[in-house]
Amino acid sequence: MDLSSDHVVMKLVEMGFEKLDALDAVKAVGKSCDDAVEYILKGHHRTGGFAPASSLCSTGSNKILGKRAMPPSFSSGSKRQSSLFDHFRSVNQNKKKGNTFGSAEVDSQLDTASDPSKEQIKSFAPVFLESSCYPETELSNGCSEASSTWEKRVNSILRNRFGISSLRSFQREALSTWVAHKDCLVLAATGSGKSLCFQIPALLTGKVVVVISPLISLMHDQCLKLSRHRVSACFLGSGQLDNCIEEKAMQGMYQIIYVCPETVVRLIKPLQKLAKTHGIALFAIDEAHCVSKWGHDFRPHYRRLSVLRENFCASNLEFLEYDVPIMALTATATVHVQEDILESLHLSKETKTVLTSFFRPNLQFSVKHSRTKFASSYAKDFQNLIDLYSEKKKSIGKKVAVISRESEEQTDFGYHDAQNIYETDYDEDEEDQENSLAKKNSSNGKELSEEYLEDETDIFQSVDDWDVACGEFCAMPPCELLDIPVPSEKQKDFEGLTIIYVPTRKESVNIAKYLCGVGLKAAAYNASLPKKHLRQVHQDFHENKLQVVVATIAFGMGIDKKNVRKIIHYGWPQSLEAYYQEAGRAGRDGELAECVLYADLSRAPTLLPSRRSKEQTEQAYKMLSDCFRYGMNTSTCRAKILVEYFGEDFSSKKCNLCDVCKEGPPELVNVREEANLLFQVITAFHLQVDNNSEHAPYEDYGLGNSKQKKLSHKPNLLFFISKIREQCQKFKETDCLWWKGLARIMEAREYIKEMDNKDRRVEIKFILPTEKGKKQLDFEDDKPLYVYPEADMLLSLKQDRTYSGFSEWRKGWADPEIRRQRLERRERKPRRERKPRKKRTRGPSSKKLHPWRSKE
Ligand SMILES: Nc1ncnc2c1ncn2[C@@H]1O[C@H](COP(=O)(O)OP(=O)(O)OP(=O)(O)O)[C@@H](O)[C@H]1O
Ligand SMILES: [Mg+2]
Fold first, then answer.
1. Which one of 196, 220, 567 would you pick to mutate in the ligand 1 pocket, going by the greatest count of ligand atoms within 8 A of its CB?
2. Which atom of ligand 1 has the smallest separation from the CA of 560?
3. Is the pTM for the entire model greater than 0.90?
4. Which region holds residue 790: left if phi is over 0, alpha if psi is between -120 and 50, else beta?
5. At what angle do helices 216-228 and 531-542 cross, to 10 degrees?
6. Where is the UBA domain (predicted)?
7. What is the maximal distance between C-alpha atoms in the chain?
8. What is the pLDDT of residues 509-543, one digit of tens each?
């Protein structure tokens, strides 16, 4: 295979496909990546000749710009078993079927975008409803009569255009701030209707609203919706733009301009001209959490948006009577992030913060334990989903049973025995766990570089997430609207949609493949898949042609689809912000929806690789750690944890829907004895280190060689656990997970703390006793210390295992007979393959391998 074929194979592997499949595909179709993807997705087993996509369609995706969206035709969903290929069709195929989506189809009336005559430009002119244009002076004169008048106008627009009866109170507040020409930060729950806050000003004033938005897919969805509400709009991404659309936008031909942050910075001068000639009613910065380095979805270009405040104020532009107001909106900003947004955007001092509850009362949160990294878990974890959607339960049941048998053999609940303690936890610190993903994901046995790893996950969403760079949507006249078949989202035989979020691209493909294999209509979505495929998945998702989308974070922000009934997170999210943002896609019709997090509760999550500064890394660990604690929680309402995370006082106390509210907390357990013991072992060790000569502690603990000395000088939790097991018969059998959970609780109560003040850990590792701990635990006391055991502690109770003390276990290897027996046992019992240990290197060469750390 030559170099370029290799390159295609590499690309396919990056997309998440198996190497064997990739090799196969390249052999079959040659070096075209698109054809190879199609070949794999289509499935090798299919009969009939394979027709490469490149032979079917032109790939000139930018040609399809500037077209008006037509209503998608709703399909009730065919009964045949779907395959991934079903969601990977060429644009030409769509055209043949008359299936138009977004700007993909040419509306004959408007297919003149490349050469607009004046008449044509006229036809694009904003269709302001006579009654909805409202003189700004009247809007802002501040008297209550006028404010009630503008509200009446708004209500009439809402009814006539959007079919909505009235404003929500936070929308009213945001709009009255805009009417008063003030900047505003809107913090409101996902699905609460933030978009209306910036759409209404365009309809009220006849001026243009400029919306800064982070993704093409999001801009496209909103433009398409607006056109159905008879509002003209366009979107400008950052790729190769159609100059004609940009020019028309700068001439005020659209009521709303969606633009990505990269592009708006370039358009400052034309926008100033637009403000003079036509008027700009508002700059809206949607998904404003992207501004903050402390948020979950930082986008460096968002930080440059401070130019808006600087360039559109009355002191700079003499034709302006007031500053053009800026409205920043988000559903997922902690207090820290809120402050950062205000500061970074240089918003005026009078900026009003409109804050509503982040609580989503119809979302039902739960957490379940699963070894999500293993394909063998799919059958068990997705059985409910399969039952929900499947009509051929019996035949699917057979397939699933086969997978279940395999999974039984492979099941490994990940409890640590003494060997694991020594081999895993002593030698590998958490920074190295970051890299363990490389080892796990190494499909060809070779260790992969971290550069590759960054490609394995979608850390940041790219603005150009689709194969179109810009597009325009004319306001649909009412007569055309009547012809739109409205997708019935409450169809009896339709159970709503599910989105499964996974951490890596590979998992998105694998799970989608698995679900297709058992008869579901599922599709994968990750940033490395062909953009044409991604657009098709969006379309099918919006037209209810799919049941499940299996996605990385590349699919999510802002998606407004009423009937998403289930959000499954399969693997730890990286933060609660990301989790809540993604969960917020569910239940946007106000009906009950489920948000389940499947995660390996026996292991702390690791940070996915990405380039971060030192500060960002610490923040990322903090966020991950909060997320881990959310998963471990067994006693506090989950909705309460989530909204309080964003700084809200959760007045309802309980949601009455989440697993904790429904099942109740576990029984309180008195852990006085264990807590005292652990604390005393820790204190005793530190006393010895403080008081004695250098060598004493090691000798006392019977540790000889220099490596162990080094380790024991800074002993981690597992070392103390092994000491307890050695010295205290009663707790010999107590599982490591139990102690880990207890240590976490003790840390939360400030009885112990991390020794080196490192925030870079998800769990406490090197422990120091605190003064508070000394007061509470450093003496024999019968006073009970009741705690709710957390998820890992409960998990440990289900496990029936025996433990020998750490030292005993070590000593065992020295005895030839014990050694022989152990080796024999190992050979009999097939274990998961262990990769040969690589000697850890530090210094310049290891730096080279860790590009995301090099900035630290
Ligand atoms: N006043 C209202 N009354 C009833 N429905 C409304 C109202 N305002 C907005 N909606 C509906 O709420 C839905 C969600 O709106 P939108 O997409 O603006 O949410 P959002 O707050 O931007 O959410 P996200 O943070 O997830 O982007 C829309 O379908 C919209 O029609
Ligand atoms: Mg939104």
1. 196
2. 17
3. no
4. beta
5. 40
6. 2-43
7. 95
8. 999 999 999 999 999 999 889 988 998 999 999 99
